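Batch job 17 of 40 flagged for manual review because the log was empty.
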Amino acid sequence: MPTAAGEYNTAMRRFRVGLGQINPTVGDFEGNVRKIVEAIERARALGCQLVAFPELAIPGYPPEDLLFKPAFIEANLRALDDVTRASRGLTVVVGFVDRRDDIFNAAGVLHDGVVAGVYHKHYLPNYGVFDENRYFQAGTEAPVFAAGETVFAVNVCEDIWYPAGPTTVQALAGAELVVNINGSPYHAGKARFREQMVATRAADDLVCVAYVNMVGGQDELVFDGASLVVNERGQCVARGRQFEEDFVVADLDLEAVFHARLHDPRRRKEKLRAGETTPRIALPALPAAAQVPPLEPPTVTPLERVDEIYRALVLGTRDYVRKNGFTRVVIGLSGGIDSSLVAALAVEALGRENVAGVGMPSPYSSAGTRRDAQRVAKNLGIEFLSIPITSILRAYKRALARAFKGLKEDVTEENLQARIRGNLLMALSNKFGWLVLTTGNKSEYSVGYTTLYGDMAGGFAVIKDVPKMLVYEVARHVNRSAGRDLVPETVFERAPSAELRPGQTDQDTLPPYAELDAILEGYVEEDRGVNDLIARGFAAETVRRVVAMVDRNEYKRRQAPIGVKITPRAFGRDWRLPIVNRFRER
């Protein structure tokens, strides 16, 4: 403002923002409101002028077809009232479902105990795991809010991904700070890409961005947090932790935004047009807050790739088990790499006392795998049960002898062993209330190297979206983190085998896993065709065989339990191939 001498005061105009990176549960209105109110109290104690919470934080995200239930929408609005009453003395931005003539994915701007404004999400994603056009109407207005000297704006998740979207319009209309609330699900590497995008948007629009993301598991989705506060130069000034709840606080110099804009004359004509169409909502002044000293946000270093994947698997497993009311899980321990990794992840997620391993040796189980199954259980400190299946297999064969008379043994008898094991695990689940964690990986699910009602039987497929070669990487990470071999070295060295017939290895049926995973990445995740893959140098016969296996095993994947999404394109929400389908690439 002008001084007595007619000069301008260029002192820092500090604005303190807080981000409540919480782990909500869909439909748990009481629990979600409690988390939000506790974080509001924390924001108040820290002297925050504004605190923001994730997209649809009140009902949980994604609520899917619960949005067709009027009672769900009403409960969400009552919960919003509870949060509004808790907002006295500061500004709160929170995600909820707004009801007008339709329903909207909305951000409520709550100011000093009242709803001061509502923003409706403009861009409704309808790709990958998202299906928002099924539920919501798109918003059309992008208001800005004036709170004393500060002008800020709010938008929701997808809106910030568009270079000329609401963020640009709001910045041109005077917003110095844009608060973007998110339910941005994880896949490997996404946090870095997201941070680059937010930094680019902030620098391009000369605006500070407070980006709050939820954390936690919801069915097969994991939200990784990694909330951000970025200044007008695109520099990250505060970062939230990944895969755990956090409260992020940052002091922003909004006077620096004004000065940066003085040096960018390109904005001026565009600014006039934006100002004509963008509503501005004035917020009543708040009582003067007690002076608080500047803070230095703690430094949070982004995780390395394999550690990131490991933590996503742990969080996804923990939340799926606990949010569904289970306390204990059971895993079939074969002595192979997949079940060993799943057991290690389960112990990290739930504690060793809540994990049971079951060895179910058959006539074809080697002494090495039997020994390693026991060693894994001992190394992890979990309960281990041994239930041999040889006598059960004989009984099955006797029962089927007349029907199979004159026929040679084949894959049918192999699958019998897997189905006996599935039956035993489900019996333990029924008797003790344990959730069965299945142990198949993405490579196997892709090509159908799995048995319906056998190794696919269970409630949650922890590594369903983890390719085989990545399984080895994550298992190595488990050992490095523990400082000892929780997974024995012999498990890494042994050739993968289902051990359903004498001398069997996976490579009797499949290409080497390194080659298989590379082909699958191209075909499943990138939609590369047969000719594209052959042009990459893969043998034509191998490519056609793998593609044919993927195509004809969709019926199996539809019956598989869900599992944690790790890759950009996971089976399930991301992949919608028809089962009845005669199209084949040649």
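Reviewer: the log was empty due to a logging misconfiguration, but the result itself is present. The chain has 18 helices and 20 strands. Unflagging and moving on to job 18.
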